[in-house]
Model the fold of this input.
Amino acid sequence: MNKSFYIETFGCQMNKNDSELMRLSLYDEGYVLSEKIDEADIAVYNTCSVREHAEDRVRARIASDQGRIRKRGGLIVVAGCMAQRIGNELIEDKTADVVIGPYQSPAIGKKLNEYFLNKTARLFLSQSAEDFESRFRGYPESWHSWLTITHGCGNFCAYCIVPNVRGRLMSFSSTDIIERAKNLAASGTLEITLLGQNVNQFGQDTGDISFYLLLEKIAAIPGIVRLNFLTSHPKDFSEDIIRVIADNPNISRNIHLPLQSGSDKVLALMNRAYTMSHYYTLIDMIGKYLNDYSVSTDLIVGFPEESDNDYRATLSAVKEIRFDEAYMYAYSPREGTPAAAMKETCGAREKTERLNELIAIQREISKGRLMTRLNCVEEMIPEKISRRGSDELMGRTSLNHPVVISGSSDDIGKLLKIRIDAVSGSTLRGAKIA
Ligand code: SAM
Ligand code: SF4
Done:
């Protein structure tokens, strides 16, 4: 009988996309999907290494499942960034039976065949170019598709493990990407999200067209009603990109522009290669070109040598810019990164206090930003039934604000016009008008 698998995904959109590719690869080799981890022959954990907490979550999850999996003779596979970082250790301490790094995880089906053949091939961690498995495959099973345009990153932000575990920047060819986007649109995809650690650097390693041109060409594909891109980097985000967004109404007006810190001193220590003054110039430029837009960000508190004044500079920037949404983290040292060699000056308690204060301030700002949407007519694509009831649908507006409306599952994956009539916590509430 064919072996069954279950995939548990941790971390970012890249990992979600890689999990989809793993599923396709396992289907190719005759493995079948199991709805429950407790019924699967193979438990795959697609992991994240960005913060220690992310790795702790994976370890806790495997520890709690392990006994049951082993008892029925199941296989534990760890894929993704944590596999790449500490794969040997995971095999040695018997946490995992097989580990597969991000270069090869989309070929997981073949790798597991290899393992089942002789049970000696357990580590698939090579990062050589010939082991890099294509990210272009499969057909959409829904109205939304991820489209990876670059893999890896060579920016070496001092705190970041990504260059170590996912390797340097590798851009896919614009011809292949555009072809893929056309195929997706032709087979029913309405919304595409272009993915890369720093999409703005697209083509810089291969001499291909610049990101803004790629964006323009994909936006022009008939049938693509919404085009998102993640993530931008303030050092590479440019007026050309903003101009293309302004000229193409189907490009999302949500700009995700990670700031990380409001202090020039800390930004320099982080090797971010921009200053606050540059960041403000970009925000002004966005405002000049776009009538309606939202800006979201990532912020880290407690980086080595972040003084109280530096932290206050982050708070001031947050209050001044008024981000629609922010993903906020306490700095977590990652072995092998430049920042791990820096002396930590902020204790665990102080980091938590700073983070909690920042979160509270941003929560109020986010709520204020949502309030400005009251009575606006917006576009929304319902994504799923709301947790609160089967007659409610959840989705995101074009500005990426979360919204709930009354409706039935027939509307999932359709572009709707809605009117915003309330704000409930961190979510908009609206009603369908067309
Ligand atoms: N490439 C994207 C970028 O440049 O923003 C995403 C990188 S990372 C997966 C997402 C976010 O995690 C970062 O923007 C940063 O705020 C946070 N992060 C990364 N490493 C971290 C660390 N060591 N400690 C705390 N937060 C971290
Ligand atoms: Fe990490 Fe910086 Fe690259 Fe983002 S741009 S993946 S934070 S090194």
Observations:
- The mean pLDDT is 95.
